[in-house]
Write a structure and sequence with these properties.
By secondary structure, this protein is mostly beta strands. The chain is about 10% helix and about 45% strand. The longest helix has about 50 residues. The chain is flat and about 130 Å long. The relative contact order is 0.05.
Length: about 775
């Protein structure tokens, strides 16, 4: 019998399912590769577009900078003003792979005269990622003056002037801190060291000994401050706050070195720049004859500011300066830097040149806020005590004969400040040649029928003890006067200046004043090169004095000792001797350190005088409600502080001097309403005879003005009694609000409603209302 066997061959190749799976995997990979290629091409295109936009913005800035002609066919304007006329412009440019819109804005700025330039380039949808902003400033500089900086007699071409004035340079040295002698750690928490070599050059070193910068002028100056973000809430009266901001690095123009932030989790900065000790001054060390400083004209001047990074741009941001915060109408253009320089003045107070600032500055804060178009939040930070934001330009002024010496640190932006006004006369046949300065800042000189006067204004920290008046030109005397200042006396009489061609004649001067207090008889007065005598007055308590001196016009000092003597309030012990032989001198107070009961009385004025509450630590006070107040205290002699609250009082405290005399005149206070306030008007509403029900939909109450004009005033019901409430918004003091509506009759006796801004939010009772049919 035949047997058949079925043998199956082994399977070979791949099946359909495997083919399909492989095809799917390959397809997904190819699609991913294609997507990646598209992203790469898009990213490359964006990068190329941004690079081209940056180039276009820089190109436009350079066009403006390249204006080097000062002359013009228009005699009233320079080519600088014609070619860089203020205004705006736009143009469209076809790029390699995008169409760009380029726009620019030019505005004028002063002190010194310059142009603020802002250039913006956009492409695509002009979003934040498709926008490049650049800002700059241009100052006219005569190219011919570059020859002033050429090396004499060496045949080399002139070098371009630099605002660094050779005060610093980039070093290549590496020092071993263990090998050098005399290096000291800076006491500003920067972690840097200062080292002075045998030639008088000063190096800033890091912790490894690497030289970061070299100063050639014998001194280091600093600019210090903080960078803050200004935060503004929502609503009609939003809250404002500040927070540290480190997104924008602090940078310095032309050879300086900055540390930012100085402390972790803060936004403080310190920038170091070179000064000029050629003429000596603060911070300069006496060197031997082998040391020659190479810095000129006061050392560095230039800008300190904030710059954008790849992670943080200034789109929809504004860097605020004092002008912007004050909202005075002279707000700065789009700039992120602050300019520091010294102005050199001619005899007519015209600016004829710029020199190094040669001074340190503290409390130089930057504030960055949000901005939309031409509006920003800068002025919401007025009276914000935690900020110290100076102007966009910080400068000193020097007269034609003044020497640019190194100055002590300027702290006028720190803490509470006060503005002093110093005024005086200038006599003599050369009075027209005199220039006057206060702490190096120029004063205003006025001539009326050849009678010359000067007025100096200076803003300083309220702890400043003195200011210096200097005068130059016309053989003027005295040429320097130190004046003691007090916050209780912001207006000060300055020295009488005499400018004569011939030598001034001597005069016998008689200076008189008084000494009060129960120890007045124990006081001794002295005057260098003069004599002083005292005489008991008719009250048998106080004394009068007379000091005599023969001298040319000058400033003298009367010194007092004994009897626990002090200067009387608003007195200074320096006396100006001028043309008049009889001169008023300072008054003194001498009181024994024994307990006495003092009665202090003072004046209080203003619309809300009766609302003021007086307080005296260790004593008691009463508002007499007749524009006066009385305080009583048992105390030793000395100054006591009277604190006041309420009534929008403008001065929250004042000082009274206790000097052994029971009756004391205290400080005066003024209390007035606010300039405006947020007003709400409320009143009763009821159904009139034959009138509609109060709840009827046609009954409406309105106010004019209104915080929201389209809204009606609200009507509420409490146990069957109806009342209305109208939010009128911000109303000026002594203004009014008119109540009206539909299907209502308003009592005209109290309509419109008068507004008195006794506080920032005021609720006023309005007229009664009845409904009509």
């Amino acid at each position: 019998m035949a047997i058949y066997t079925n043998k199956m061959k082994a399977q070979q190749g791949i099946g359909l399912i495997e083919v399909l799976i492989a095809a799917v995997v390959i397809a997904v990979g190819l699609l991913s590769l294609a997507s990646l290629q598209g992203e790469l091409m898009h990213s490359s295109g964006e990068s190329k577009a941004r690079s081209e936009a940056v180039k276009l913005a820089e190109e436009k800035l350079e066009q403006f900078r390249n204006n080097i002609l000062k002359a013009s066919t228009d005699p009233s304007k320079s080519s600088f003003d014609v070619d860089l006329a203020t205004g705006t412009g736009t143009e469209s440019i076809n790029g390699s792979n995008a169409t760009f819109a380029r726009s620019w804005t030019l505005t004028d700025a002063t002190s010194p005269d310059r142009k603020n330039i802002s250039v913006k380039v956009t492409w695509g949808g002009a979003s934040a990622d498709e926008t490049v902003n650049m800002v700059s400033q241009v100052v006219w500089a005569d190219p011919g003056k570059a020859t002033d900086y050429a090396t004499d007699g060496n045949g080399l071409a002139a070098r371009a002037p630099s605002p660094n004035n050779n005060s610093s340079s980039t070093p290549a040295e590496q020092f071993d801190l263990d090998e050098i002698d005399g290096e000291t750690a800076l006491d500003d928490d920067s972690g840097l060291f200062k080292y002075t070599d045998d030639t008088g050059r000063i190096y800033l070193l890091d912790s490894t000994g690497k030289a970061m910068i070299k100063f050639n002028g014998g001194s280091i100056h600093t600019i210090k401050g903080n960078v803050y973000a200004g935060n503004v809430g929502n609503g009609q009266n939003p809250t404002v706050s500040i927070s540290p901001l480190t997104s924008y690095p602090v940078t310095f123009s032309d050879l300086a070195y900055c540390v930012f932030p100085v402390h972790e989790n803060q936004s403080d900065y310190i920038c170091y720049f070179g000064g000029d000790c050629t003429n000596g001054g603060n911070g300069c060390v006496n060197q031997d004859d082998t040391v020659t400083y190479t810095a000129v004209s006061g050392g560095w001047y230039g800008k300190v500011g904030l710059i954008e990074t790849s992670d943080a741009s200034f789109h929809n941001k504004k860097v605020c300066f004092a002008e912007d915060i004050a909202g005075t109408g002279i707000e700065t253009a789009t700039t992120t830097a602050r300019l520091y320089l010294t102005q050199r003045l001619d005899a007519n107070n015209n600016v004829v040149g710029s020199e190094g600032i040669n001074q340190s500055f503290a409390c130089q804060d930057f504030l960055v806020v949000r901005a939309t178009g031409n509006s920003n939040d800068c002025n919401r930070f007025q009276n914000f005590d935690e900020l110290s934001v100076p102007s966009s330009t910080v400068y000193r002024s020097l007269g034609p004969d003044d020497i640019n010496t190194s100055q002590a640190e300027n702290v006028s932006s720190c803490g509470s400040i006060i503005t002093y006004t110093v005024a005086g006369n200038i006599s003599g046949d050369q009075a027209n040649l005199v220039q006057v300065f206060v702490n190096g800042n120029g004063c205003t000189i006025t001539s009326n029928n050849n009678n010359y006067t000067y007025q100096c204004t200076i803003t300083v920290v309220d702890t400043t003890a003195s200011v210096t008046i200097t005068a130059t030109g016309g053989s003027v005397a005295p040429n320097s006067t130190v004046i003691n200042v007090s916050t209780s006396q912001p207006s000060i009489t300055g020295p009488a200046l005499v400018a004569n061609d011939s030598e001034a004649e001597e005069t016998e001067y008689h200076i008189t004043g008084s000494i009060s207090g129960n120890q007045a008889g124990s006081v001794t007065l002295t005057l260098t090169d003069g004599t002083c005598t005292t005489a008991l007055n008719a009250d048998s308590i106080s004394y009068s004095y007379e000091c005599t001196i023969t001298a040319t016009p000058t400033t003298i000092t009367i010194n007092a000792s004994g009897g626990d003597v002090t200067l009387a309030m608003d007195s200074i012990n320096t006396v100006n001797l001028a043309d008049a032989a009889d001169v008023d001198g300072p008054d003194f107070v001498a009181a024994a350190p024994t307990l006495m009961t003092y009665v202090i009385t003072g004046a209080v004025t203003g619309h809300q005088a009766d609302s003021i509450i007086f307080n005296l630590d260790g004593g008691s006070c009463t508002n007499n409600y007749d524009n006066t107040y009385t305080c009583t205290i048992t105390s030793l002699p000395g100054d006591v502080t009277i604190n006041v609250t309420g009534g929008n009082v403008q001065q929250v405290s004042g000082v009274a001097t206790l000097a052994g005399v029971t009756a004391v005149t205290g400080p005066s206070f003024n209390s007035n309403n606010l300039t405006d306030c947020n007003v709400t008007v409320t009143g009763n509403i009821a159904q009139g005879i034959s009138g509609k029900d109060v709840t009827n939909g046609s009954v409406r109450v309105t106010s004019s003005p209104a915080a929201t004009p389209s809204s009606n005033c609200s009507i509420t019901n409490v146990s069957g009694n109806y009342s209305y409430s109208c939010a009128a918004g911000t109303i000026a003091d002594s203004g009014s609000v008119t109540i009206g509506g539909s299907k209502v009759a308003v009592d005209s006796v109290n309509n419109p409603v008068s507004v008195s801004c006794t506080s920032s939010n005021v609720t006023i009772i309005g007229p009664s209302i009845l409904t009509t049919n």
